[in-house]
Amino acid sequence: MCTLHKIQDFLHDYKKIFTWPFVKGLVTNPAQLPFVAFLIIVAELVINLLVVERVPYTEIDWKAYMQECEGFLNGTFDYSQLRGDTGPLVYPAGFVYIYSLLYFITSHGENIRLAQYIFVAIYLLQLCLVLRIYNMSRKVPPYVLVLTILTSYRIHSIYVLRLFNDPIAVLFLYLSLNLFLDSKWYLGSIFYSLGVSVKMNILLYAPALFFFYIVNLGVKETIKQLLVCALTQVLLGFIFLINNPVAYIKGSFDLGRVFNHTWTVNYRFLDVQVFENNCFHLTLLAIHVVLLIIFLPMCLKYFKSYCRLKYVQQQFEPQINAKNLANKKRSKLNKKEVKQKLNKNENTEETLSKEQESFLNSFEAMLKKSDIDKGTKKSAKKHPITTEIEGKTNYSINFDVLSQLFILPMFIINFIGIVCARSLHYQFYSWYFHSLPYLLWSNNYSVITRFLLLALIEMCWNTYPSTSFTSALLHICHIVILYGVYNKISKELKMASKLE
């Protein structure tokens, strides 16, 4: 009899797949992203393999990477002596170890095809981490991610045709974000620091992460996390620090490094003299600081809300699970057995009080009204917090959507760093590409405007060499996105303050 019920339930769920609401939800409902995410991963596997097999590899930095690592493997631990055809080594120790491993795996860097397949795996792993964040936040409709991810020529080129170190740094970054969402603080800090050890751009997230530590952990625990990050850097760079500490720090964390105007994507319209001028660099730094001063207080409020609601989750989830488990057991008993069970466990069973049930219902109403669950309003109507199953109440809250209160501040602080960057090279697109849909769906622009901005940004990054027009256009798109996010966050916080 039990088997018959399971078969009936399976057939009932299976039939849902062929209904119009389910198919429509696969396109528009962020809550149904998991199924679409699987299809995206499969499609990306096929696309990347086709790119590797049919598109010629272009040598840019891979040979230089191998030369730099070869010097290390030959016993040179003085960073000032490590260099390749493109110049001295300018990345931290994590880069050296990872590319030294690739040096051995790829027969001293000669087996380019194998290296490309490794980067296909890196890209797919990162994509899984990215899609997990989008699935948790339920912010962006599935069709947006399909169109954005699958159609980017530049991103596929960066990962599997150029073999840059940027994708590896970004992989560690997304892994750390997932760990922070799971409240695995020490692991998150270690992998964040590993990302920094591959390329310094991951530090763009540091201002937001610091305040996230403070709000969630307090000063004492924040110091511990910062020590974990610092200790990771010291351990990785130890062999270089004991040989020539000045050369290592200056070489791998050189904040004053001058970029080559030849490769710039965002400042082609400037003369070389202006582009390399220290006054121009200081001006950009000042703008960066001002934008951080504007946005960080907003981010701080988001983090505080995230922390409070995480506390609510910890308080209510065990009771919700206990109540649902009890309801599930009752549904399997006949009426006589139910009465016996209730009488027997009347004094021991953990239940939700009327006040707690009232809170759950008010919490649902808050989620529906707030922007946190705006992307899933339709699904919230179909899947309310309390539902009737065979006469029994089933309680559920999708606490995962609270991740929006963490992810948006992290993405926007990184985006500010990119807007104010002294130069953007083509591989730098990987620093923020996968966060663009999230940022665009965190403003009040129309869908057409959002896709137009995505298309224009992609065009700017695909134009080689960059032109004065594409560089200026890229800045305009960035500023429009930044203003849109600021405008929406401001309105939300004003509304929240009125409710309080």
From TrEMBL:
Membrane-spanning residues: 33-52, 89-105, 117-134, 168-187, 202-219, 226-249, 280-300, 405-426, 438-457, 469-486
Main location: endoplasmic reticulum
Membrane topology recorded in Swiss-Prot or TrEMBL: Multi-pass membrane protein
PANTHER family to which the protein is assigned, alphabetical: DOL-P-MAN:MAN(5)GLCNAC(2)-PP-DOL ALPHA-1,3-MANNOSYLTRANSFERASE, NOT56 - RELATED
Subcellular location: Endoplasmic reticulum membrane
Recorded metabolic or biological pathway in which this protein acts: Protein modification; protein glycosylation
This protein's name: dolichyl-P-Man:Man5GlcNAc2-PP-dolichol alpha-1,3-mannosyltransferase
Lineage: Eukaryota, Metazoa, Ecdysozoa, Arthropoda, Hexapoda
Any GO CC annotation of this UniProt entry: endoplasmic reticulum membrane
Single GO molecular function: dol-P-Man:Man(5)GlcNAc(2)-PP-Dol alpha-1,3-mannosyltransferase activity
Catalytic activities: an alpha-D-Man-(1->2)-alpha-D-Man-(1->2)-alpha-D-Man-(1->3)-[alpha-D-Man-(1->6)]-beta-D-Man-(1->4)-beta-D-GlcNAc-(1->4)-alpha-D-GlcNAc-diphospho-di-trans,poly-cis-dolichol + a di-trans,poly-cis-dolichyl beta-D-mannosyl phosphate = an alpha-D-Man-(1->2)-alpha-D-Man-(1->2)-alpha-D-Man-(1->3)-[alpha-D-Man-(1->3)-alpha-D-Man-(1->6)]-beta-D-Man-(1->4)-beta-D-GlcNAc-(1->4)-alpha-D-GlcNAc-diphospho-di-trans,poly-cis-dolichol + a di-trans,poly-cis-dolichyl phosphate + H(+)
Keywords recorded for this protein, A-Z: Coiled coil, Endoplasmic reticulum, Glycosyltransferase, Membrane, Transferase, Transmembrane, Transmembrane helix
Coiled coil feature spans: 328-358
Pfam families named in the record: ALG3
EC number, as in UniProt: 2.4.1.258
